[in-house]
Design brief:
Keywords: DNA-binding, Transcription, Transcription regulation. GO terms for molecular function: DNA binding. It comes from Coregonus suidteri. By secondary structure, the protein is mostly helical. α4 packs parallel to α7 and α5 packs across α6. The protein is built from seven helices and no strands. The chain starts with 18 loop residues before the first helix and ends in a 20-residue tail after the last helix. The chain is about 40% helix and about 0% strand.
Length: about 150
């Protein structure tokens, strides 16, 4: 009976502190009092939903001064669309309905705010009968014979 002493208690499944408890302010100060070595690192994006790392080119991009913009429809093309539409007796809404686009698309093309889309430009060309692309902008559209 020498092995079973009433004064000592053996705990079999004692768990260590959890990760959150080990990182708490109390755990850190207790470890400092005991003289243990601590390794603390500050997370640079803690508490934020940043999934991607900052690339090495960030400073280079910050120094970049060139402003990149999409090319817009020229005012010349806008005037041709407006004249062709008026000669056909169409409003912006009528032309938009005819080519299955929104009226705002026609308004953007006429005032030069739109980014040119060849598909939309082709529809407008066919609807008003004037060329909008290439060298001869504003000339009548030539009907191409259909291939048999």
């Amino acid at each position: 009976m020498a092995e079973s002493d009433w004064d000592t208690v053996t705990v079999l499944r004692k768990k260590g502190p959890t990760a959150a408890q080990a990182k708490s302010k109390q755990a850190i100060t207790a470890a400092q009092r005991r003289g243990e070595d601590l390794d603390t690192t500050k997370k640079w994006s803690a508490g934020q939903n940043k999934q991607h790392l900052v690339t090495k080119n960030t400073a280079k991009l910050d120094r970049e001064t060139e402003e990149l913009q999409h090319l817009r429809v020229s005012l010349e093309v806008g005037k041709v669309i407006q004249l062709g539409r008026q000669n056909s007796g169409l409003t912006q809404k009528d032309l938009a309905t005819k080519i299955n686009e929104k009226p705002q698309v026609i308004a953007d093309y006429e005032c030069g705010k739109a980014i040119p889309n060849n598909q939309v430009m082709g529809k407008i060309e066919r609807a008003i009968g004037l060329k909008l692309r290439g060298k001869d902008i504003g000339l009548p559209l030539e009907a191409k014979p259909k291939k048999k």
